[in-house]
Specification:
- By secondary structure, the protein is α/β, with parallel strands linked by helices.
- It folds into 2 domains: about 5-245, 3-Layer(aba) Sandwich (Rossmann fold); about 255-390, Rossmann fold, CATH 3.40.50.
- The protein has 13 helices and 15 strands.
- It has helices at about 10-20, 35-45, 60-70, 80-85, 90-95, 120-125, 140-155, 185-190, 215-245, 275-285, 305-310, 330-345, 365-380; strands at about 5-10, 25, 50-55, 75-80, 105-110, 135, 165-170, 175-180, 255-260, 265-270, 290-295, 300, 315-320, 350-355, 390.
- A 7-stranded mixed β-sheet has the order 3-2-4-5-7-6-12, sandwiched between helices. The chain has a 6-stranded mixed β-sheet with strand order 9-11-10-13-14-15, with helices on both faces. Strands 1-8 form a two-stranded antiparallel sheet.
- The longest helix has about 35 residues, at about 215-245.
- It is globular, with a radius of gyration of 21 Å.
Length: about 400
Amino acid sequence: MSRVDVLNGNLAAAHAARLSRPEVIAAYPITPQTPVVEYLTQFHADGSLPCQMSEVESEHSAMSILTGASLTGVRCYTATSSQGLALMYEPYFRASTLRLPIVMNIVNREMISPQTVWGGPQDSMTLRDAGWLQIYVEDNQEILDTTIQAFKVAESAEVLLPINVCYDGFYLSHMTERVEIPSQEEVDAFLPPYRSRHIILDPETPMAVDPLTNGRLLMEYRRKHMAAQQAALVAIEKADAEYARRFGRSWGGVIDEYRTEDAEYLMVSLGSVCGALRECIDDARARGVRVGLLKIRSLRPFPRARVIEALAGKKGFGVIDRNVSFGTNTGILFQEIRAALYSAGSRYPAASFIGGLGGEDLTLEIVAGAIKSTIETVDAGKIDNEASWLVRPERKA
């Protein structure tokens, strides 16, 4: 039977990894991910996590070890943040292009410089085109549930790609919430053991891995990789639906919608700020303002069709980004939404916002202001807009 506990986000991720029975874990500590490694080490020491734990000297080594381990056909897990993710970029890219279903939590933290250790998804979003699947979550229960689901998605025969489950550093990693922890027996029934059938290093059946390829063969690899990304859209939805049947919790699949059915305006975002958006949307609804939330869960693959469907019939939308898309004067998510709509021949009045960088609070006051500004922008029919920067108003002494 499941049990209820009060967990921070890092402990929720560690429990999810433990329950998923990885056979090899390799990780290097970096703020704010460090406690994940500590919790996993404790689980291993007390016997509740029977796996091979590899103590490495860097994140580059961690991903390199998991690449080799996954090639032997075993289930693998790791976690990292920010500069650690940057250091592992070479094997990170290789893991996806070798089609290795590794699961990695990214505890989102800003990239330097200027020096900062505070939260922000710029680290993972910068690597959105390195071939991994990427899912962003809102709270600690979603961290646990989605990390378990991630193994099922990554290991699906039609997918076979590594996956990131990303959550906000400090806002989730170090803050505690009520979390329901399923039993090992329940997770085993949902997630069977993994055995690779597409690639496995075995002296009895030798094979070449990662040979030097010409352009034509490389194009074939990339075409199949992109097809697997699209297949993941279905796999994510299926895993969420099965999880809901077994555990009673659904997170919406590739997107989550809140009070969108009769909404005239939609606010779009991802991660923990969606909690503040829900509060402000409820307040706006109480005043008769028909606004809803479109939460993007899957950034890669991007759920283009679901986004187009969610926005159909709306007057317009606003996007709150906690990142920047250098050279565009907007955030990354705003660019993704506009690209999806362009493919459908749709142009909506829209507002772009950037805020919460470097762990800066996106307070209810600020979020409510973004909703108000969105409505004003949409009602004025403005389409091509640069981002507005969300900052706390100056307070008089």
